Amino acid sequence: MPPLTHLILYCRAGFENECAAEIADVAAAMGVFGFCKAKPDSGYVQFVPHEPQQARALSGIPVDRLVFARQAVCVSEFLTQLPVHDRLQALLPAIERMGQRYADLRLETADTNDAKALNTFCRKFAGPLRHALEKKSIAVSNHADPAEAPNLHLFFLSSSAVHIGWSDPASASPWVMGIPRLKFPSGAPSRSTLKLEEAFFCFFSEAQRTAKLRAGMSAVDLGAAPGGWTWQLVKRGMHVTAVDNGPMDATLMASGLVEHLRVDGFRYRPAKTVDWLVCDIVEQPARIAALVGRWLAQNDCRNAIFNLKLPMKKRYEAVQQCGDIIQATLTGSAMAERPRFKQLYHDREEVTGYLSV
Ligand SMILES: C[S@@+](CC[C@H](N)C(=O)[O-])C[C@H]1O[C@@H](n2cnc3c(N)ncnc32)[C@H](O)[C@@H]1O
Question: Which of 37, 70, 171, 289 sits at 20 to 30 Å (Cα–Cα) from 10?
Fold first, then answer.
């Protein structure tokens, strides 16, 4: 693998501190110590290990196990002052120095309004760069085995400053910029529907999606109205009990697969175990964590996906605390695994959790 001087982690703008605290913790647990550079609202974090030789282990951190990072790129070089009229002249030797062949080329930026202007530049520059790399047979080669070869990332801060690095497809996000491109499905009653769809992509492989989301399964949707999450379940042929005082979408109700109950989601319990609990109630995160823990501990559901609306401050700590609450509720039951959490692209001031028995 090429040399590694630091990691760049992409995150939601405004969550740099949480992303930094998390990577510092995860790296320390692996025996790698360093410091973070995190500019507010920049949409990324730089983690610089004190001992670059130790940093190698970081390339194996599975991004889907990090809550706040959408992607983690192992950076070999940071180039500034690329010559405006011939960027390739500076970039190609740096890429060659990494001494590797690549399965894919990613020209990326932070996900911020400021960086949006760079997207046009990236699109225009991708063609000539790809061509130059193929001519030199150093990268983006059809001969490289895409399952084995790393991806080459150029993370542009401006059209003249770029972090050049790579990611291992076995641990990295498969999406460009770590952002799944999901289309809003026509017929879904709310944009929230994309959160649950993204959660299915984020937490499960294709084979797991097929096994876990089957027609005929039963589900309860707490805080269901107007029905964006219920819609995702009904689309997969599931029977859904939608719990909410608010009105459900009429077309969704006409599917015949939804029972709407206007009761309190914190009091409702199903008559028998359901395959799925999903919960999008806007409440204190600790209260939602306790609710989800109870459902699993009491065997009310086999799987749970839920949203935690984060407080204004100490958001990383709040997520940790919710994990502790759920784990404590489950102590002594057959399963005491920690839930997985992810701040999805479609999440705002929130994270999504998943746990199953
Ligand atoms: C963010 S919205 C849910 C959006 C929904 N997931 C969708 O995709 O359309 C939150 C919902 O939680 C409901 N809610 C709030 N407190 C509740 C409670 N104690 N029990 C049940 N529903 C509740 C609200 O009425 C609101 O409709």
Answer: 289
